[in-house]
Hints:
The structure holds 2 protein chains of 2 kinds. By secondary structure, chain A is mostly helical. In chain A, 55% of the residues lie in helices and 0% in strands. Chain A is built from 13 helices and no strands. In chain A, 12% of the residues are buried. By secondary structure, chain B is mainly α. Chain B has 5 helices and no strands. In chain B, helix 1 runs parallel beside helix 5 and helix 4 packs across helix 5.
Amino acid sequence: MSFVEDPACLSKSRLESDLVAHNVELPPAGSNKEAYVALHLRHVDQTNAADFSSDDDQEHNVAGEDPEGEKELDPSALTDEDLKALLFKYGVKAGPILASTRAVYEKKLRHLLQSAAEGELNEAENAVLYSDSDEEDVSEGNEDEEKESGSEGDQEKKSETLEPNQQQRKEKNAPPQKCDFSYPQCFVLSSRLRPCPPRNNEHSSKRNSKNALKSSERTRPHRSQIPAGISKVSSIAQHSGLRSGDPVKDILKDLLPDTKTSPTGIYATPRRPIKGAAQRPIQYAYPDTPVSPTIVERQDVARRLVPVYVQVLVFFALVCILLLIFVNVENTNSVVALLENVNQGPDGEEGIPVLDEAAGGDL
Amino acid sequence: MSSTSQKHKEFVAEPMGEKPVMALAGIGEVLGGKLEEKGFDKAYVVLGQFLVLKKDEELFRDWLKDTCGANAKQQRDCFGCLKEWCDAFL
Lengths: 363, 90
């Protein structure tokens, strides 16, 4: 059972890429898909057939063969298991290779192969450029130096080529030993874990400015790979606290005698709490605070409220005066009788007919 | 942190059930039609593909691009939508 697809089922672009991968000349631009299929059948399928037979004495119509020739460079010609194995070799843990996922994994493998090929080209170029004495060690060391700045790199490979670089680095680090301040923030996840003898702290100065990671090795005289970057940072912070803490401490002690010593060397003074913020109600420590206009208004209104009683009294006084005036102006028996009637109450029945006559006479 | 669209929020809010593929964030009518042609007519089928690719972003985005021609933003939206749905319900 063959896992290779029938060329006629493949798309034209897919056929094109397959032909290119096999270094087969493409048919002219305007040609039909059938031309591609025919070429594909002729060249690619031959190599596939050769794959399934013995590996020796293969008939390749391919013009330029890959000098390495170790594996098939055409991912589409691989079986599912081979594809998966190849991807795993490049560090890609592939899931199930199904009909729907195969295309994606092939594409990924092509990318990986291309980048690997480019990587080899770069190495070859560097080998040519840097070929002095001791070609391999120096060239590899220089390559590693170049690569280190950009990528994190494989720690296992580079640990072997540390020897020549140690001497180079030591020369660089020897002269500058001025600044005692380190920069714990800028650490590079480098694989250059060198065994540094736990000497005085002065030598760490320049190294830290270059690569703060190395300062952690003073506590670890043997080569060990630190898996997490966090542990590196914490160890660096400790060292920076010890070294740079002393001058800082003296200054702070002068300014703020109450500072507590902190292991990290970071000193922070608490800020004054914000008044009026959550759970920090304003404390009225000043009773003679200036009064706002609204409060002034309220006081004015309050003052006006006081003479309300005066106003009421004045009102009643006016009413009494009016009544007196009315009584005086009228000055009739009827009004007097009314008043007497009111005073006497039910006893004064005789007053009523008198009242009636008076009222009727007047009107 | 980029903001999520309304479509994304609606999709992630509940189990997808039988929602059509166009309910996915980043998948509109055109892309949805192309996916349906390929057989991915429901959102759960695309979810299946997402899971088979082991929720890998690069692979899923490549697959989406190859299958329906989604651009980078659409790929990103769809991936984010499915990933968040999985985090919530799977």
